[in-house]
Amino acid sequence: MKEQKYPAMDWMRMICAFLVVAIHTSVLSSFSETADFFLTGIVCRIAVPFFFMVSGFFLMPKIASRFSSVIKTEKKLLVMYMASVLLYLPLNIYAGQYFFKDLPSFFRAFFLDGTFYHLWYFPAAAEGILLLGLMQRLFSRKICMFFCILLYLIGLGGDSYYGIIKDIPLLQSFYDTYFQIGTYTRNGFFFAPVFLCLGWILSDTRNRLFFPHAKKISLVSFALLIAEGWLLHTFQIPRHDSMYLYLLPCMYGIFSVLTAIPCSSQISFRKISMFIYIIHPWVIVLVRAFSGFLHLDSFFVNQSLIHFLAVSGISYTLAVILWKIQQKILNKKNMKFFVPGRN
């Protein structure tokens, strides 16, 4: 399967990267806390599931035929994660977040929560891919999907639906025990596998919705997702707001739509979007620091939309620079292996 066949996914990667920035800058909070929750607490929650689905869509068919691909993928994720951990270590120390002070703190931060608030994605991706990779060696895709949905439902109980189950003694005991180990159920065991598996299922054209049906499913489930998020928020049920029930059909519909949209391919967006995801919290810190130094907080920080635009613009610019540097390094490496006279 060639990734360039699905150019709409490249565009969606960039959109989702900026949706993550919107979450971390509370983009509409200056105007309305309610509007900001609708956007960042519900709508923007499609971003990370999409990233997982893309991984499942392109990686899982390779893993299903060759398990060695799991090891290769795990190594790449580990390298990216370690580089990101080191990048944010100064901020950890500055904020007094000494995740390495003892073994339980290190385990929680490194394997479950991420050493910085957005870095949970890397251990979640690594653990989810490994778990699904092991599952697919034992079960069919449908059975894998059943187990992944079951794990997701368990995760829901510790996330958006926590307020409903927390007073049920047996369930309360389970979640109380888990929360002594990890801070969230949004991780590589309860959250990532279902979206990786959804992507894997959609890699088979027979499992995709026809475009008109996909559009209808997307719109209806998106409306239900918003209603679900708002009702849960109104009754103060969530412990966190990363996981929703209607996120599953919504992502299934959206992803099916994306596989059918014809547009120009932007291969560079694949790397640039990931760089934006990795570096934007540093940019948030720098924008706040320079705004404070120049006494421009009221404009660049307190105005949430301008804050979002500043962080997004700088993050995009730095991401493009990093991508170009990476391309030059890769080109130099390729030149070393080039032998004149050979095709």
How would you describe this structure to a colleague?
The protein has 343 residues and is mainly α. The protein is built from 15 helices and no strands. The chain has helices at residues 7-25, 33-42, 47-65, 68-94, 103-113, 121-138, 141-157, 162-165, 169-178, 192-202, 211-234, 247-258, 268-293, 297-300, 304-336. The longest helix has 33 residues, at 304-336. The two termini are 24 Å apart. The model is unreliable at 338-343 (pLDDT under 50).
At a glance:
Helices cover 71% and strands 0% of the residues. By secondary structure, the chain is an all-alpha fold. The two termini are 24 Å apart.
Write the layout of secondary structure elements.
Layout: H1 7-25, H2 33-42, H3 47-65, H4 68-94, H5 103-113, H6 121-138, H7 141-157, H8 162-165, H9 169-178, H10 192-202, H11 211-234, H12 247-258, H13 268-293, H14 297-300, H15 304-336
Helix pairs in contact: 1-3, 1-13, 1-15, 3-6, 3-10, 4-6, 6-10, 7-10, 10-12, 11-12, 13-15
Core attributes:
343 residues, mainly alpha, single chain, 15 helices
